[in-house]
Design a protein that fits this description.
The chain is mainly beta. Helices cover 12% and strands 45% of the residues. A hairpin with a 2-residue loop joins strand 10 and strand 11. The N and C termini lie far apart (44 Å).
Length: 333
């Protein structure tokens, strides 16, 4: 009987463990969110669902950039170009489950800090906002560092840079930034350790064959840099994607103000790709898929590409029409 009891206990624990494991597997998420600069909407979809459904919500900003999603707090955060502030929208899953059509801003930052935001980069409880030069901000390009709190966003530091900003990405304590109107990217090493004020890039390099960078993301797990090329702003068919494998060594071996050659790139360009003005990009290092916010082709599309193994005019795996889509963000939880 003692042995039977132990066996039963082990069986019960085993079943309980299996149940918990099943629940953990079921609760895994791969959340993709997007924002628009024309529709006043954001979208949310859990790609791990058996039949993923895109949920669209109206927010308080007609024009929003730099979207991100925090699975721990179930909040979507955008850099509002309508209200010139960071805005956080809570209870996204509840809204999706109930079929709600709108999200209500729960907290926001001051609307006196920045105008013409182009992108955000997230590092833990810190959010960096890239301000692109415009008459409303005195033609000044700046980076603002905020800390997320339960009551809003606290501005910690701000930095003035000497080039036009667009996409940014945090990797640890280093910030990578697109040098808009060029084929260049720059890095600010130990970015958060700098005091507020003027800041110079640690290193800047050009990407051979790329016309105008906008979107940028980096996978530390794969040591892969992904960039978008919008080409001409008025063409809906000359955009592309650039992948740089072994990026750490490639970047380190390229001199400051030097060039990363096409020999170190995998390039997706051509009419089949439907890339015209790809303004933002996200990458999932588990599925090796790339998600693109294509702003101009067809008025706006969310494009998904399979793992890039060679340069080609690749067809997207999926195409979703989305008016004015400007930013895209993916997170696995």
């Amino acid at each position: 009987m003692k042995n039977l009891f132990i066996s039963c206990a082990v069986l019960i624990l085993s079943l309980s463990s299996c149940s918990n494991d099943d629940k953990e597997m079921k609760d895994k998420e791969l959340v993709l969110v997007t924002s628009s600069n024309t529709s006043g909407k954001v979208t949310y979809v859990n790609l791990e669902e058996p039949s993923p459904m895109v949920q669209s919500f109206t927010i308080a900003s007609l024009d929003a950039e730099g979207i991100s999603y925090d699975p721990d707090t179930d909040n979507i955060i955008v850099a509002s170009r309508t209200n010139n502030r960071l805005e956080s929208y809570s209870d996204v899953k509840t809204a999706a489950a109930s079929g709600a059509l709108a999200l209500t801003a729960s907290v926001s930052s001051s609307n006196l800090d920045f105008t013409n935001a182009r992108e955000t980069a997230v590092a833990g409880d810190k959010i960096v906002v890239a301000q692109d030069q415009l008459a409303s901000n005195g033609m000044v390009n700046k980076l603002f560092v905020y800390q997320k709190t339960t009551s809003g966003f606290t501005l910690l530091k701000s930095y003035t840079v000497d080039f036009k900003l667009w996409g940014i990405h945090m990797d640890g304590n280093d910030l990578y930034a697109v040098v808009d109107l060029t084929s260049d990217i720059a890095v600010f090493k130990n970015f958060m350790n700098n005091p507020s004020g003027n800041i110079a890039a640690t290193k800047r390099v050009s990407i051979e064959g790329l016309v105008r960078t906008h979107g940028i993301t980096y996978s530390a797990k794969e040591d892969l840099m992904v960039l978008t090329d919008v080409g001409s702003a008025t063409s809906d068919s000359d955009g592309g994607l650039v992948y740089i494998k072994n990026f750490t060594s490639v970047f380190a071996s390229t001199a400051n103000m030097g060039t990363i050659s096409t020999g170190n790139q995998i390039r997706i360009y051509g009419p089949n790709s439907q890339l015209g003005n790809p303004v933002d990009v996200a990458y999932d290092d588990k599925t090796k898929m790339t998600y693109v916010a294509e702003r101009l082709n067809g008025g706006g599309k969310v494009l998904t590409f399979a793992k890039a193994t060679m340069s080609a005019d690749a067809n997207p795996l999926s195409v979703r029409t989305e008016a004015g889509v400007t930013s895209i963000f993916i997170i696995r939880n």
